[in-house]
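Translate sequence into structure tokens.
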Amino acid sequence: MFYVETLADLEKVVRQGRTPEQEVGIIADKVPEMSGGPCAFHADLAAANLFGQSVPMDGRIPTAGGQAVKVDGKSGVAHELAPESEAFGRWQNREFLHVERSFARTWRSALNGIDLVTFAAGMKALGIDHQTCKSLADAKKIVDEFLGRSGDQVPHQIKLAMVLLGIPVEFEPQVLEQWHGHGSASFINYAPYAAHVMAVELFFQIALAANLIGTTNPANRTDTAYLFYAPFCHVFVSSDNLHRRCAPHSSSRSKFRVGLRSKSRSSPFD
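Result follows.
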């Protein structure tokens, strides 16, 4: 999300006296060059989890691709430099490709086109409003109660997860077969990361319907998406008020910590 949001700044009105290229370059300069790398896309990880693949949720960062290798008799996995990392290297040199500019334009258009009012209306139709959900803690309880159901409720949870992830319905029998093969476990036990992604999504939509998150700022949708990656970190630091309010409800790990940076000490990860 950070890479794509930064790229979108190429098509954004920036502060006076700077060009979009300068703004992105300044952000790129702040990106750590040691021990840093992009996490795999959350939707891909959640989809793989639904199909029975394990996804680590203990603070390790899953990366896409990789090739099995052996060196001195020891097994390992070799990764080439990710396209996002290559792009940031170019941006630090103030080099921007035409394809990146086009992508930035598409992303900015999609971000501005998100209708949060429609999101909220969908949940309100299910009876969620400021009377039935008075706090973000209430929203988290509603989500936990739904995901805590087991038995014959799990197939419905799996279907909803597939809809949220955009997985075609024709793959449903294959996913359900995998679920049965794992002893028809609860959804949280069968696909814990997919359950986390669904929890963040449902939490956001419930909070919108209950007027706990505003519907006037489309960026709220993007900011919430950062929480999809909470299982892959130990500390989450941000200067964003929405993050401060919502991040504590996005992880059940006892060692997960949330911090708020001052606006005057902004970092590229805010």
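Note: Residues 115-265 form one domain.
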